[in-house]
Amino acid sequence: MNRDRTTFICGEDFSTLEPRDPCPNPLHDWPLPAGFVSASMMAESRLEQGWGNTSCPDCREYGWVPGRFDGYAAAAIEVKP
Fold first, then answer.
1. How does residue 16 score in pLDDT terms, banded at 50, 70 and 90?
2. How does pLDDT run across 22-69, given as a tens digit for each residue?
C-alpha cells in the first residue's frame, strides 16, 4: 500500500495536516488533520477539552486557542509559521 496516496475514510490519521494559514497570528498554529473524519473527530475533542475556536483579529479566519491535551486533542500538532 502506498501511504502517500491513501485516503483515510474512517479517521484517526492525525499526522497529515491541512496547510497552516499564512496569517502569522498564533491562533493558526494548530491546523486540523487533512481528512474530513479525522478533522471532525479532532475538532470535537478540542472543544470537549476546553479549546476555543476563535476568529482571528488579524485575518478574520478561525483558529484555535489550546485547552487541555486529552483525548484526541492530545494528538494535536503545533505548526509554527
1. confident
2. 999 999 999 999 888 889 999 999 999 999 999 999 999 999 999 999
13 DSSP assignment: -
Contacts of residues 59-68 at CB distance under 8 Å and 24 or more positions apart, as own/partner, are 59/21, 59/23, 59/25, 61/21, 61/23, 61/28, 62/27, 63/21, 63/23, 63/25, 63/26, 63/27, 63/28, 63/29, 63/30, 64/27, 64/29, 64/30, 65/27, 66/30
CA atoms of 74 and 10, how far apart (whole Å): 19
Cβ proximity of 31 and 18 under 8 Å: yes
Strands (E), 1-81: 52-55, 62-65
Q: Collapsing DSSP states into helix, strand and coil, what is residue 52?
A: strand
